[in-house]
Amino acid sequence: MIRYKKYQMTGENSPLKGLWYARPVIEETYDTERLAKHMANHNTPYSTGVVKGVLTDMISCIKELILDGKNVKLDDLAIFSVGIVSRKGAASAADFTLADNVKGLKLRARATGELSNAQINLEGQMKEAAFYNPDGGTTEGGGGNPGGGESGGGSDGDQGENPLG
């Protein structure tokens, strides 16, 4: 079940200012060790340590490959790759420089196979999170400002200025 909170865009220069959107509530994050324990409990003959070792090596190899400009596809999960974050466009190829036109790199993950966005939309279920006030006041269990900071400002690290994800 995907829980969500409603939030209102507040950015002064945003054309979306004042509009309300849903933002997913992430209740917990599994690190490699916890994922290994979870996997080891799924009728596998491998111990948590063996599973963690394989996952750790996989993560290291994925980092190495994407930093070498390759995509890595984990079937029915995602294709991992590097994206370029542009600062601004150049008027011509001759005017283009990395310093002026590129802000940096980012990790991209695109759903693939059985975990396509269409499949997530078919199978995913949403429910509004309990114990918060979407108008910004606080109630027992938390505030109405998911992710902290300014509402709609992208302080949760993955929403940015795009309220739809």
From TrEMBL:
Entry keyword annotation includes DNA-binding: yes
Disordered: annotated segments: 131-165
Domain spans labelled HU: 2-107
Biased composition (Gly residues): 138-157
UniProt entry tagged with the keyword DNA-binding: yes
Record's keyword terms, sorted: DNA-binding
InterPro entries per record: HU-HIG, IHF-like_DNA-bd_dom_sf
SUPFAM superfamilies: IHF-like DNA-binding proteins (SSF47729)
GO MF terms held by the record: DNA binding
Database matches in Pfam families: HU-HIG
Name the UniProt record assigns to this protein: DNA-binding protein
Protein source organism: Bacteroides uniformis
